[in-house]
């Protein structure tokens, strides 16, 4: 359900950039979403199609790039990638410690957009 | 056919919420009002925990409660009946609170006279984890009937919280809930989290929660 406010925010940002760049039509939007973020690609496109009706972004395709979950070891500072479902079991590949901080994997980011 | 060109956007989608959340935190730091965001599934005991907390702390701390529900005011009425200022935010179908909604809540509560404001977030282990409310501390409840596998299904929620309360421990003898497996799973996701076992019904373990809360409020106010 949180796809709806996120989609509203995407549309707001996209239309702001479209206006300042003299865009006629937004064709595609490139999003970067962390693998830890629970977001259904299909729903976000559906909400976007609904919300963008009658705007310059109507019909734009959302291209979602899933960003890896990166951890940094608290003991030796090595950074390494983890899968969301295996977060509980993973240890630092360098020193074997479990204690780590999250470097990335929660992002909701608009990278760029294709326009005409 | 018109040429397609690329425009760099480079913006955080949730930037507005991140900014409002930081404003909430700073505003409450000035009035020395600690804001605590309480999250859990529906029915795991958020309102019961708040009522227990009110009963234990209303003589020593000035409390306020922000209740969020999709569409009802029953929780705020229960809290207000105990003589504590409570405001009900109806989220109108939204599955979580964001920092702007919390701002409305703290505006309505006259927070500058309060030591601790507890937000009862919408019952949901997914969406509330994604939205910063502006709280200084995030606390979640997992109740025994929900099962010990929840950290595997909702890792983000467990990884953002400062404290986990395992509620309804009076049900432990009736279930196959494995407390040590749960602790292992949670600590692997979040080594800094504090885990306390409680029963809001029998009062077991509540003292530990109240002591944690008192310490955190004192530390926040800089009394220690």
Could you estimate the helical fraction of the residues of chain A in percent?
Answer: 25-40%
Could you state the order of secondary-structure elements of chain B as H and E? EHEHEHEHEEHHEHEH
Instruction: Outline the biggest β-sheet of chain A.
Output: 3 strands, mixed
Low-confidence blocks of residues of chain A:
none
Q: Please state the CA-atom Rg of chain A, rounded to the nearest Å.
A: 18 Å
- Give the strand content of chain A: 25-35%
Oligomer: heterodimer
Mean pLDDT of chain A: 90
Strands of the biggest beta sheet of chain A: in what spatial order?
2-1-6
In terms of structural class, how would the helical and strand content of chain A be classed?
alpha+beta
In DSSP terms (H or I, runs of 4 or more residues), the helix count of chain A works out at: 2
- Helix amount of chain B, in percent? 25-40%
Number of helices in the DSSP assignment of chain B: 8
The name CATH uses for the topology of chain A is hypothetical protein PF0899 fold
Secondary structural class of chain B: alpha/beta
Q: What gross morphology of chain B would you assign?
A: globular
Cα(first) to Cα(last) distance of chain B is: 69 Å
The biggest beta sheet of chain B, please? 7 strands, parallel
Structure commentary:
- The complex is a heterodimer of chains A (116) and B (224).
- Chain A is 25% helix and 33% strand.
- Chain A is of the alpha+beta class.
- Chain A has a single domain (3-115), classed as hypothetical protein PF0899 fold, CATH 3.30.2320.
- In chain A, the strands form two sheets. A three-stranded mixed β-sheet of chain A has the order 2-1-6, covered by helices on one side. A three-stranded antiparallel β-sheet of chain A has the order 4-3-5, with no helix packed on it.
- In chain A, α1 (3-20) crosses α2.
- Chain A starts with a helix and ends with a strand.
- The mean pLDDT of chain A is 90.
- By secondary structure, chain B is of the alpha/beta class.
- Chain B has a single domain (15-219), classed as Rossmann fold.
- In chain B, 37% of the residues lie in helices and 21% in strands.
- Chain B has helices at 15-30, 46-57, 74-80, 99-108, 150-153, 155-160, 179-189, 206-221, and strands at residues 5-12, 34-40, 63-69, 86-90, 116-120, 137-143, 163-167, 194-197.
- Chain B has a seven-stranded parallel β-sheet with strand order 4-3-5-2-6-7-8, sandwiched between helices.
- Classes of the chains: A alpha+beta (116), B alpha/beta (224).
């Amino acid at each position: 359900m949180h796809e709806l406010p996120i989609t509203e925010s995407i549309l707001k940002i996209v239309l702001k950039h479209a206006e300042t760049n003299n865009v006629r039509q937004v064709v595609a939007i490139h999003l970067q979403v962390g693998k830890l973020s629970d977001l259904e690609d299909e729903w976000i496109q559906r909400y976007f199609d609904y919300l963008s009706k009658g705007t310059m972004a109507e019909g734009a395709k959302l291209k979602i790039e899933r960003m890896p979950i990166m951890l940094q070891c608290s003991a030796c500072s090595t950074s390494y990638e983890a899968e969301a479902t295996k977060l509980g079991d993973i240890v630092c590949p360098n020193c074997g410690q479990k204690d780590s901080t999250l470097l990335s994997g929660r992002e909701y980011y608009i990278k760029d957009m294709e326009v005409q | 056919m018109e040429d397609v060109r690329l425009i760099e956007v480079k913006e955080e989608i949730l930037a507005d919420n991140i900014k409002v959340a930081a404003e909430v935190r700073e505003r409450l730091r000035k009035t020395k009002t600690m804001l605590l965001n309480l999250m859990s599934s529906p029915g795991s005991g958020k309102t019961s925990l708040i009522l227990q907390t009110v009963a234990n702390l209303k003589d020593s701390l000035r409390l306020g409660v922000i209740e969020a529900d999709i569409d009802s005011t029953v929780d705020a009425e229960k809290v207000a009946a105990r003589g504590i200022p409570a405001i009900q935010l109806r989220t109108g179908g939204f599955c979580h609170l964001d920092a702007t909604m919390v701002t409305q809540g703290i505006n309505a509560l006259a927070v500058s006279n309060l030591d601790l404001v507890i937000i009862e977030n919408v019952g949901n282990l997914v969406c509330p984890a994604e939205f910063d409310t502006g709280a200084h501390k995030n606390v979640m409840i997992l109740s025994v009937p929900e099962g010990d596998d929840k950290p595997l299904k909702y890792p983000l929620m467990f990884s953002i919280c400062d404290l986990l309360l395992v509620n309804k421990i009076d049900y432990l003898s009736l279930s196959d809930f494995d407390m040590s497996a749960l602790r292992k799973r949670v600590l692997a996701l979040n080594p800094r989290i504090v885990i306390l076992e409680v029963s809001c019904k029998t009062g077991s373990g509540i003292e530990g929660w109240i002591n944690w809360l008192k310490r955190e409020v004192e530390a926040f106010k800089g009394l220690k």
